[in-house]
Amino acid sequence: MAWTSLLIALYAGSVCGEAQTISEPSDEGRRLHAILEYISTAWNTLTRSTTDCEGVADTKLAESPVLYLPADVAAPRSLISAPANCEIRVKHLPFVIHRAGKVQARQIQPPGLLFLENPYVVPGGRLNEMYGWDSYFIIRGLLRAGKIDLARGMVENLFFELEHYGAVLNASRTYYLTRSQPPFLTSMIMAVYEADKCRDDRTWLTAALTAFGKVYVNGTTSTYKKRTMSTAARKKIAAAQRARWARVRAGKKH
Prior knowledge:
The protein has a three-stranded parallel beta sheet, with no helix packed on it. Strands 1-5 form a two-stranded antiparallel ribbon. It is mainly alpha-helical. The protein has helices at 2-21, 27-45, 53-56, 134-144, 148-165, 185-195, 202-221, 223-228, 231-249; strands at 47-48, 66-69, 89-92, 113-114, 120-121. The protein has one domain (49-249).
C-alpha cells in the first residue's frame, strides 16, 4: 500500500512538473503552424475539375475557352450541364489518339483543356490543367494530409490520359498531346497503394497494371523516347518499373 501511494505521488508530481514547464509555442513553432494551415487551405484553393465552370474557365484567354472530350467517349453525365452559361465550348477531339507524338498541335484548333474524369490539384493558382510529374509531388502531399480519395482520383486521371490521349501528358491541354514527362506514374500508384492498403482493391490494381504496361510500351518503343533517351537509360527505367511491380505483387513495401 505504501509503495502504491509512493508511485501515485511520484506520477502526480511528474505530471504536475510537466504541466508547469509547458511554455508558449516558439516563433519557429508558430511559423510552422502558419505554413501547415496555409497548405491545408490551399488544397481546396488549387483543386480543379473539368465538370464545373470554375475549373474550365480561363481568365488568361480573351475568347471563350474550349473543353475537349476524347473522340471515342460520349459526354458523361458529370459534364457541365449548361456550358453556355459558363461561356465554355465543349467539343470532341477530331480523331482517336493511340499514342503521344502521333498528333500535331496545329491539327486541333482552337487549343483547349482536355477532359478528365476526376478532380485534381494544380501546381499554381492561374493554372487549370493537370500536370504530369508535378502531380507526383502533389499526391505525396495529399496522402500526407489524409486526402487519399483525391490522390487516388488524380492517379486515375493519368490512367484516363493513357487510355484516351496516348500518354501521361506534360499537362492536360491539346498542345501538350505531343509531350510526355518522366515516368513517375508507378511511384504515384505505389504511394496511393501503400497509403490505402486496407482497401485491397484488386480491380484498381489491375487497372494500374494495365496503365503501367502502356507506360512501358510507350517508353521502350516510341520514336520520341528513342530520340531523347539512350538504350541503357530505357532499360534501366524498365527494369526498375518491373522490380517495383514484382514487390507490389509480393505485398512488399517499396
